[in-house]
Design brief:
The complex is a heterodimer of chains A (113) and B (115). Chain A is globular and about 40 Å long. By secondary structure, chain A is mainly β. In chain A, 0% of the residues lie in helices and 51% in strands. By secondary structure, chain B is mostly beta strands. In chain B, strands 2, 5, 6, 10, 11 and 12 form a six-stranded mixed β-sheet that branches. In chain B, strands 3-9-8-7 form a four-stranded antiparallel β-sheet, with no helix packed on it. In chain B, β10 and β11 form a beta hairpin. The radius of gyration of chain B is 14 Å and the shape is globular. The chains are: A mainly beta (113), B mainly beta (115). The interface between A and B is medium-sized, with 28 and 26 residues.
Chain lengths: 113, 115
Amino acid sequence: NAGVTQTPKFQVLKTGQSMTLQCAQDMNHEYMSWYRQDPGMGLRLIHYSVGAGITDQGEVPNGYNVSRSTTEDFPLRLLSAAPSQTSVYFCATTRGGWNGELFFGEGSRLTVL
Amino acid sequence: AQSVTQPDIHITVSEGASLELRCNYSYGATPYLFWYVQSPGQGLQLLLKYFSGDTLVQGIKGFEAEFKRSQSSFNLRKPSVHWSDAAEYFCAVPAGGGGADGLTFGKGTHLIIQP
């Protein structure tokens, strides 16, 4: 039972390149979300999804795209990477209905040069 | 908007000593409150949560937290810390969308354990 799996764990990009961070869960959770973590800033919500086919913006959505074609997968796309997107990215899931516990992946560290 | 403040960026505690990490919240109604822990290189793990009822809640790894409405606080405590408790600790509240849009996190407190 893997839980929440993120790939890749590390990535270096050049400014302007695009890439996709993958997130897969085997917990059958309805809600999935992406956060970024920056030093001294805590975690900030980028995008979230309440189910397949439904996504919405969080606090810092600019420069990122998401889609949710299946319950299991919630990829995060960087369309044209910028140095300001250098961060650690976390995918998280929670059950449908609010019980508060987010289950996190181990994170993806992205550096944009 | 709901928010949390963690006043201490770093806390240093000797192994075996007691610990208290502070969290103050701003929330429109009866708050839901959470503490998460992040070990180095890992994702976050839920330590404990408060929804209602008893204001002293017990969590995993020997942690507890007390909800004080009069002080808008939800401080995390542990009677005796272990070296393995060295980590980043985050207080959180719901972002406001009824659960769908996740949590709003504080900026974290980095706990250092001295031998």
